[in-house]
Amino acid sequence: MNDINSFLSRLNSIINFSTILPKIILIVGLITIVITDLVNKGKNANFLYKIFLISTLVSMGILFYQLISVIAFEDLYTNNTFNNLFRFFILICSFISVLLSVDYVLCSKISLVEFPLFKISAGLGGMILSCATNLITIYVSLEFLALSSCFLSGYTKRDIRSNEASMKFLLMSGASSSSLLNDFSLLYGFSDGQVQLDNIIDKILFSQYIPIICISAAFILAGTAFKLSLFPFHQWTPDVYEGSPTPVVAFFSVTSKVAALCLFTRLFRLIFPYLSNEWHIVVELLAISSMILGNLIVVTQRSFKRMLAYSSISQIGYVMIGILAADLENGYASMITYRFIYIFMNLGTFARITPFSLRTGSDNIKDYAGLYMKDPVLTFSLVLCLLSLGGIPPLSGFFGKLYLFWHGWKAGLYLSVTVALVTSVISIFYYLKIIKLMLTKTTNLVDTLKTYENQKSLVSSIISTKLKSSVEMAMILCALASTLSGLFMDPIIKITRNTFF
User: Taxonomically, which superkingdom (predicted)?
Assistant: First the structure.
């Protein structure tokens, strides 16, 4: 009995303290995919996706165990909670987006093998970025994530829109990375060659290098604001969303934003504590502008993916309220909680529009008119996610926004919260507009579906069966999470509270 207890105690220590273990599992999965593809010579590509899903699930299980240990052994493990939470979010994004993408790739008749490689590479880069405390590691992992996402955006290389989206993403991502690299060079020079964030804080004399520190903060803000799609660094978002394949947009719309949010929080909290008032004012102005711009321009959009692009711009403005109002006691609990709920709301919406785009080849919102006549299940699930994004009670989006805005109001962010409340009402208008279109309008959608399927022959009977299995699994998972997670806010908040890096 003592031997068993000793073994379990040792296993518990290994799992909790081996922060690199989930990343090792992903690397092993990546190598296994490459070797399996070389041995099978491109055959049985579905097996490669199963390897990806298994490695992702194992990594999620380990991270989930570490998060649960925070509740049981709070004093011992809270120092890893912040990193583990964001890494866990990235794995969730990767897992659900793969469920959406497998059959999309099959139906689109494009290469199968490289797709899981790029997905697992991007997820691995995001996980490393989420816990990086070294300037070199931050930059390398950021480029790893950005390049993998860029390759994914141009994956349908026969589509000129996908090529255009990939080129724009590459150029704009390079510009933002250059901004960050310029800032890192300043920090490296004025800290006597230090690359660790903690050492940089100790070495830099803030009273002596105030102008340099302000310039450095401006460059970091510009570089991370691009990754987050904050105004005015949001210009790439609508075009890249519209041109990229739908499952790819679902992936980097949440994965890259989660990793960039973690990076933004860590850099500004650790390096610029003495400039908190200054960067708080600037970030608040950017957040307010993002909320106003995103929710006003989205009303005029005709493309569903462009609509979701501007919606994500406004959503990141809401999330910034949590960062601005955060303190060590709350540990950014409101920001992390809402981001967790948003992952399921956003991916759930993409899980609905992916099969529609496959069947019709259309991204126009007007083509969703009368969708309830053709697919009532798809319509109902899409309605749930749109209402949750709008913050309609009793769905999860309402509780997430309530907790986020209430925490911001208590922190004194009266202007930001007021703008957020007003723009949230505006967002409800265009979400309800789409719902009304699907439920009340009539269209010749059936004829459109038949014509497109006869001309393109995208979905065979075998692939259609697979499409229902994987996409519907993602639909059910996201629908349950985006609808019911609000009922379990207390344990979620308990895990996210008192986190630090």
Answer: Eukaryota
**Cα distance from N-terminal residue to C-terminal residue, the chain:** 37
Q: And the tokens for 243?
A: 């041109």
Residue with tokens 């959608």: 445
The CB density around residue 215, as the number of other CB atoms within 10 Å, is 14
Q: Could you give the CA distance from residue 484 to residue 501 in angstroms, rounded to a whole number?
A: 29
Tokens coding 244? 């990229």
Crossing angle of helices 304-324/276-297, nearest 10°? 160
User: How does pLDDT run across 263-303, given as a tens digit for each residue?
Assistant: 888 888 777 766 667 788 888 899 998 899 888 888 888 88
Q: Quote the CA–CA distance of 143 and 178 in Å, as a whole number.
A: 11
Q: Identify the segments of the chain with pLDDT beneath 50.
A: 73-79, 445-467
Angle between helices 210-228 and 276-297 (to 10 degrees): 30
Mapped onto helix, strand or coil, the DSSP state of residue 497 is coil
Residue type, 36: T
Question: SS3 for 232?
Answer: coil
450 sits in which H/E element: helix 445-456
How many Cβ atoms are within 10 Å of 488's Cβ, its own excluded? 12
SS3 391: coil
> What is the amino acid identity at position 373?
M
- Cα–Cα distance measured from residue 211 to residue 273, given in angstroms and rounded to the nearest whole number: 15
Instruction: For the chain, give the number of residues.
Output: 501
Q: What is the value of pTM for the model shown?
A: 0.85
Contact 94, 49 (CB under 8 A): no
Per-residue model confidence as pLDDT tens digits over 164-187: 888 888 888 888 888 888 878 887
Close Cβ partners of 285 (under 8 Å, ≥ 6 residues apart): none
